[in-house]
Amino acid sequence: MKMVKSLLLGSVAGIAAITGAQAADLPLAEPVEYVRICDTWGNGYFYIPGTQTCLQISGLVRFDLRYEEPFDRANDALTFRGRAQLQFDARTQTELGTLRSYLRMRGNYINNANTATDGDDFYVHQAFVQFAGFTAGKTQSFFDAVYDGSFTGAYNSEVTSTALLGYTATFGSGWSASLSIEDRSNREVAGGGAVALLGAPIAYAGTMMPDVVANVRVAQGWGSFQLSGAIHQNRDNTEVGGLWVGADDEYGFAVQAAGAVNLPMGGQGTRLWASAAYADGAIGYLGTVASPWVGSGTTGGIARADSFVIADGAGGFGLETSSGWAITGGGTWVFNPVFRSNLTLGYADVESDVVSLVGGAPVGDFSQFIAAANVIYTPVQNLDLGLEVFYRNIVDDNFDTPVITNDDSWGVMGRVERKF
Fold this sequence. Notes:
The protein is mainly beta. The protein is 6% helix and 54% strand. The strands form five sheets. The protein has a 16-stranded antiparallel barrel with strand order 3-4-5-6-7-8-9-12-13-16-17-22-23-26-27-28.
């Protein structure tokens, strides 16, 4: 019996040894690395596997349908617009602070948009890197302070983004100051192709100097406030008979004050806001440059220019700058998590001592008033169904007989938007 027991134990030990040796020869499975949640910067971030970088992927899909009384028979009354947008926000915590890179891709489809042809495009709307207070890339101008919640867009609203290199210093308690150099061409307003009456709108030459922009900002529990300013070079390249007329450069500027106050009544996000801007030789900073709903370079048939080439009285030519101001205000009221509403009012006035024609449209003085009100219904999280009513009035101050055939315009706009 002892002999049988010894044989059995020996056999088991031998089999175990052989099995262990064979298992040692097998390749080991790679360890599984699961995607980990990163909550350092809020919801939606996750660690890119194998790195200490947190990434958030988000976006939106939007459809707009708009009806507006046309200013001219050639303009569309009914406009369709579709938008797709993707954002990638990557952040890494370093010894010198957060290293951030951000990319926003946007594609639009707009039928006519009050222009001559239908159009669709897909482009880089924003792409920048932030580190140690520096921002480099394409992003919102440091001049801007955007509070407007209307669909139509009023003055000083976001129209586009610009390439810049800037630095922001933070001082605590919500205070900061920023300085940047920005792409001049993004703010150029030129009525090219004009027939001169008293002077021709500037035809911009190549960039020699960027726009210089600075701001001071405070953001605290009560709301936020920003002062900003910009310097803009008017460098002319107007030619007569193939030769440059020799107009000297002029430097324009713009200043703006904007702020919002949070209100205790209503839900989170309820606030009143206002902004006021003045510009001379840099009217692109007024927010009167065409929105996607208005033909490029015109406002209901009125073109604009930062400056005009005029005779200087000494046998040469100089630049006469345009000036203007814009004031916008409004509010957002959050009734509950399902309903909210926005009201926007805006008025702008641009004046030029020179009047020209671009394809029969005046370049020079005009004023414009905008009012818009909307209601937004959010039946489920991240889905917005909105309806907006708006009114615009444009006054042509250049001629006894206005070029614009209808200076008042009413409209309504519906929006469906899903964020993710």
